[in-house]
Amino acid sequence: MNAVAKIDEKVTELEMEAPAQPAAAPVAVAPPVQPTPAPVKKKRRLGGLLLMVALPAALAAGGGYVWVTGGRYQETENANLQQAKVSIASDTAGRIVKVDIADNQLVKQGDVLFAIDPEPYRIALAQADAAVAVARVGIEQLRAAYSQAMAQEKSATSEVDYAQSQYDRAADLAQKGINTKSALDQAKNDLDKAKQQLAVAQQGIISAKAALAGNPDIETDKHPTVMAALAARAKAAYDLAQTTVKAPADGVISQASSFKVGQYVGSGTPLFSLVETGDTWIAANFKETQLTHMKPGQKADIVVDTYPGRTFEATVKAIGAGTGAEFSLLPAQNATGNWVKVTQRIPVRLELTDADAKMALRTGMSATVTVDTGVARGLPSIFGHATAGEAAQ
C-alpha cells in the first residue's frame, strides 16, 4: 500500500470520529439582472407603404381591365342538345310479318324496319293490271265504232246522191207529162229518207269521236279511261311497295320495345320514333341582355356535360322570334299593376359544325354555350359612345 492510500484511510477515520454538524440552510441566489435594451424607434419602411398602395391599385386596374375588355363572350348554361324526332307509321294497314329493329338500335337510311303482309296488296295490283287491260280494249272498240260510223256516213252520202238523182229524173219526166205525180212523190220520199240516214250517220261520227276524247288519233294510254286505270294501278303498286317500311334517315330507334310480329297496324298510326342523328342543333336560352350584339353566323363553343373535357364548334343559326313566355300555353298577363320586371330569356338555335360529333350526342343533353359576339364593352361605352367594334356592327 502506497503513501497516498494510507493518507486516505487516515482522513476517513478522523471524519468518523468527528461529531455530526447540522446541515447548513441553502442560500438563495438572486437571478442575474439582464440589462434593459434601449427602445428602438420604429421606422416606416418605404417598401411596405408601396405595397399597401400598389396592391389595391393593381386589383382596381385588373378589375377595370376585365370589365372593359369583357362582354365579348356571352355564356349560358341554360342550353340543351336537340335532335329531330320522326314518328314512324305505315301508309298501309295490315298485319306485321317481319320486324328488323329493336329499341335504341342504330339504323341507316334505307334500312328495313318492318314489313306488313303483302299478299292482299299483290291481289289488288293484279286486279288493277286487269282493269288497265280492259280499258285499253275499250279504246280499241271505240276506234272501231268510229270507223264504222265513218263508213255509215259514206254509205248514207251515196244514198242521198242516188235518191237526189232519182228525184231529179222523176221531176223532169213529170214536167214533160211522161211520169205520174205518184212516181214523183215516191222519189221525193226516198230522197228524204236518204237524207235522214245521212244525218244519223253524221251524229254517229260525232258520238264516236267524243268517246275518243275528241281526237280519233289519240294514243291509247293517253285516253282518260286508260289514264284512270293506270292511276289505280300505280296506287296499287305504291301500296304494295309500302308494305316494306324503311328508315327515312340515319338515327336511333326509340319507343319500340312493344312493337312485335303479328301486331295489326292501321294506316297512319304512329308506331315508334326515330331520333335523327344527322339533324342536331343546340337550343340555348340567353338572357335578353346578352343578345345586344349577338347575330346569326357568329361562332360558338359548346361543352356538353357528358363530355366535360371536349369542346364542340357551332355557329349561331337563328335567334328566336320571342321569349319563351310568349309561346307558353298560358302567357303571363301583367295588366293588373302587380308587375315586377324579370329578365326574360330568348331561345337561340346553334348548329354544330363538327359532323363527327353528332353521332356521340343524344337529344336532351345539357350543355354550356359560349358565343363570340366580337364586341367588348370598351372605355368609350362608359361615356355613352360606341366602340370601334360596335360601330362595325
How confident is the prediction overall: mean pLDDT? 81
Total number of strands = 12
Distance between the termini: 121 Å
- How large a portion of the residues is in β-strands, by DSSP E? 15-25%
Task: Note the run of SSEs as H and E.
Answer: HHEEEEHHHEEEEEEEEH
Number of helices: 6
Supply the helix-strand structural class: alpha+beta
Shape descriptor reads elongated
Spatial sequence of strands, sheet with the most strands: 1-8-11-10-9-12
Polypeptide structure, described:
With 393 residues, this protein is of the alpha+beta class. The protein is built from six helices and twelve strands. Helix 3 (119-176) packs antiparallel against helix 4 and helix 3 runs antiparallel to helix 5 (224-241). The longest helix has 58 residues, at 119-176. It is elongated and about 215 Å long.
Please give a quick description of this structure.
The protein has 393 residues and is α+β, with helices and mostly antiparallel strands. The chain is built from six helices and twelve strands.
